[in-house]
Amino acid sequence: MIQMPVSPAARRIRRIALGDFVHRSARKFGERIAVVDGAIRLSYAELDARSSRFGHYLLEALGSGRQVGMLCLNSADMVVAYNGIHKSGNVWVPVNVRLDAGAIEYILRHAEVSAVVVDAALHADPALAAVLERLGVPLIMTMAGDGADAAGATTLTQAEAGRSDALPEIDIDDDQPALLMYTSGTTGHPKGVVHSHLSVATAILGNASGFAYVETDVFSGVLPLFHCAQHALAATAHAVGACIVLARAFVPDEIRALMLAERMTVFTGLPMMYGALLADPQFRCGTLRQCIYAMAPIPKPLIAQIAQRMSENVVLATGQTEIYPATMMFKALEHPELDANYWGTSFIHCETAVMDDEGRLLGPGEVGEIVHRGGNVMLGYFKDERATTEAQRFGWHHTGDLGLWGPKGQMLFIDRKKDMIKTGGENVASVKVEAVLLAHPAVAGAAVLGLPHPRWIEAVCAFVVSKPGAEVDEASILAHCRERLGGFEVPKLVRFVETLPATATGKVQKHLLRKQFGELAQQAWEEELPA
């Protein structure tokens, strides 16, 4: 066996570091626009120089290898700041700013942050300002105008001032932590997921290859950059020299105008976003060459509308915070015979299998847990060795999702393990019932879960959001379900709600529905039972 020691020089030459992607694109495409943020148009040369200056500031203020929290909405400053964190060899800790102050404080303390980058507008919130004051770490204020009122913080402009534009010359190992991102918390307390420069870079390179992105592409930036899906796409865009157009909120009229004005070629959104965009019968965008959706299935009629008025290249992309996106891709129009819950096949950087509880890999048609392995898998959960060990059983990463290999080697998602409903001796996949509900012409949103039942163990319960102006009642919903589902799959309880509790990326928080409606459901069952 050849034994070849790696010299410090070779290690630096061969390094894989996330900050290098922007730097390399700047060397090739310096004048190209990297980021559009309202009136701000940041070229690659500017993005590279500004993020390097911020990287030097962090090295002077903190050194390297520290956790740096971030409380930001999408902006050019945010992109500058997280690239500067990567260039300094520090660890980026993006936090969902839509969480309550208590949850944000838990994450920042659990992550042991040494500084926080925060939007000036967010810092103006008294509850958040109090959290940051209690935390007692240095603050760097983004989007702070001229910095006249920075509340004692250093503004990003001040941090950059007078520092070198050159890429910081520091050693970064491939497996060195690059980011600490917390799970969306759909079941309770979030866990901190640690990714290395290599794991995120693997996803970036796989995305660039699998989606065939080039420097002339123009990406949407509607989803929050503090989430892995949007960050992965933004980082992929900047690796290939493409442009990303940022928005701080999804306002259909504004997004339609942005898509047309900036001649977007790649749009990524939640199913409800596509529905809202296409609610305008006049809207068409001829420059799009790809439409990506995630987080939930899209009914076939909406897929057909997207293909007709936006792009025929309609794809579902999957991933998890723990397995940097994307992992699998489903091309809906290439498989019209397959339903909306198919996830497709894996990208080249990620291997996927279906496994039983004893660690045996299963064949086509057999239901088991979806597991992955590849360079884009996390290092582990921060300060949680037990959860890390559990997720890495049998040498694969365990997703908590159930699936099977269907026709043509396509992965069919069955349900989250925890969301399978056990009712009267039968297993019911909540996503199957949700897909049927979403096919009802008057339904805008739906969530299905099992609630404890004295006779059935669990009862299938549906929570439905109706479309504006639609006239629909429980009888209509049940009749629709009986035509399309087995008797044991038909909901035993239907409740209409104005909205479904969801994370920033649209994942329904079923634990909140259980908490809110569990007691009401129990009362309903008691009324049904004979005295």
TrEMBL record:
<dbReference type="InterPro" id="IPR042099">
    <property type="entry name" value="ANL_N_sf"/>
</dbReference>
<dbReference type="InterPro" id="IPR000873">
    <property type="entry name" value="AMP-dep_synth/lig_dom"/>
</dbReference>
<comment type="similarity">
    <text>Belongs to the ATP-dependent AMP-binding enzyme family.</text>
</comment>
<dbReference type="Pfam" id="PF00501">
    <property type="entry name" value="AMP-binding"/>
</dbReference>
<protein>
    <submittedName>
        <fullName>AMP-dependent synthetase</fullName>
    </submittedName>
</protein>
<keyword id="KW-0436">Ligase</keyword>
<dbReference type="GO" id="GO:0016878">
    <property type="term" value="F:acid-thiol ligase activity"/>
</dbReference>
<dbReference type="InterPro" id="IPR045851">
    <property type="entry name" value="AMP-bd_C_sf"/>
</dbReference>
<dbReference type="InterPro" id="IPR025110">
    <property type="entry name" value="AMP-bd_C"/>
</dbReference>
<dbReference type="InterPro" id="IPR050237">
    <property type="entry name" value="ATP-dep_AMP-bd_enzyme"/>
</dbReference>
<feature type="domain" description="AMP-binding enzyme C-terminal">
    <location>
        <begin position="432"/>
        <end position="507"/>
    </location>
</feature>
<dbReference type="InterPro" id="IPR020845">
    <property type="entry name" value="AMP-binding_CS"/>
</dbReference>
<dbReference type="Pfam" id="PF13193">
    <property type="entry name" value="AMP-binding_C"/>
</dbReference>
<feature type="domain" description="AMP-dependent synthetase/ligase">
    <location>
        <begin position="23"/>
        <end position="382"/>
    </location>
</feature>
